[in-house]
Backbone:
């Protein structure tokens, strides 16, 4: 890696007053921190059924998930989640509560999922999605979910129930 400040090749060292290896520029002393990526998404429901979307991109193309993706700079968590929901399935911004966080340290990600009740089943499939469905617990394609975080999210949602979801917050870390 090269320093973004001066272009010198960085060294992997533990800087003073730190406890982790960092890429540090030996010329200007700039420390290049690499921090986790935030994933933001929405668990949206209509009449107790969860909106699922089938991925049209890798990784895990043709597996089911909820509308979600990487948070962008300059967004709040909720703005990012609502943007992803709009881009992927055409859901307009809606009132939402933080429903679940899920840390995935082995790939340096933190997932934030917001809960929202939809007024209708109207969707519009974006480029990153190739199908949508509304599913209750028995209709979820459990063997074809894209990621473990989605399985945990859905299991927690169906355990809590649609009526209590707005007031339920769940925090979990992946075991890897």
Residues:
């Amino acid at each position: 890696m090269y320093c973004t400040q001066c272009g010198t090749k960085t060294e992997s060292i533990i800087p003073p007053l730190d406890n982790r290896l960092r890429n540090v520029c030996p010329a200007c002393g700039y420390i290049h921190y690499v921090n986790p990526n935030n994933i933001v998404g929405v668990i949206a429901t209509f009449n107790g059924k969860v909106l699922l979307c089938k991925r049209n991109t890798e990784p895990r193309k043709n597996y089911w998930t909820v509308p979600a993706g990487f948070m962008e700079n300059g967004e709040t968590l909720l703005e990012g989640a609502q943007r992803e929901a709009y881009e992927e399935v055409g859901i307009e911004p809606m009132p939402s509560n933080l429903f679940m966080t899920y840390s995935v340290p082995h790939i340096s990600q933190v997932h934030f999922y917001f809960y929202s009740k939809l007024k209708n089943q109207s969707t519009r499939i974006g480029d990153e999605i190739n199908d949508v469905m509304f599913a209750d617990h028995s209709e979820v394609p459990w063997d074809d979910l894209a990621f473990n975080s989605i399985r945990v999210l859905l299991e927690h949602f169906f355990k809590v129930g649609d009526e209590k979801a707005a007031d339920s917050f769940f925090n979990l870390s992946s075991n890897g």
